[in-house]
Give the backbone structure.
Amino acid sequence: MELTNVGVIKSILGRHGFSFTKSLGQNFLTNPSVAPKMAKEGGAGPGMAVLEIGPGLGVLTKELAKAADQVLAVELDKKLEPVLKETLGDFDNVEVVYGDILKLDLEKLINEKFANKDFVVCANLPYYITSPIIMLLLESSLPFKSLTLMVQREAADRICAPVGSRQAGALTVAVAYYAKAVKLFNVSRGSFLPQPKVDSCVIRLDLLEKPAIEVEDEAGFFRMVRAAFGQRRKTALNAISAGLDLPKEQVAEALKRAELAPNIRAEKLDMEQLGRLFKNLQI
């Protein structure tokens, strides 16, 4: 069953009366080279388990199942259940759980299904939910080795940008705190049905053994980061002061103690400088 063939896709979906739900950002792969490459680059292999988010029609799921010992796929759209029963029927190492990845007890689910196996995460993420899912996984205590994700190309540029560069934002900093982000390959908009309006990119986030910098209060650090990047046209002093409702004098003093220019913008700060600023901010 060639699941990237448009005719086959339409036939399967028609048989099961499936229609796309625009609000879920559903786009099924029609480029046959993408899923095998994504599975390989994502670390699916013998002895490994894979958590997949959003299997859709099962194109990537099949490639993961061929390579890895076990695949657990989480799908939000229950209407895809009969479709996936057909497309994945030949694989006894795949289990599909239906639910919202943001609401499931992931730790309990992984402990039950993977039982201490090494695992990686692979996902073709809907654009509208990219950041929440990335942060959910990075902030969890789940022992995965990497996240391999297909995201909007523009999002990939931001996520993989160096901290301290013009493209960097709060998500860039959060990712860099937990992982090393690398772009793997681009995927054109013509590789999907229906065709999205933008191109995609596959990235991999390799988890660091320990966070990139040491901070005493992670939640407080990320509050500062979100405030600093929340008003990009403002200086870090003004953005942090407004975002955290702090006196400008307090933020100015923290910048001075951290040996940073009083008019510096957040996008100019690297990880070490952000950590130093937070330490001196004392919030």
About this structure: The CA atoms of residues 28 and 56 lie 7 Å apart. The longest helix spans residues 218-230. The mean pLDDT is 96. The first strand starts at residue 28 and ends at 29.
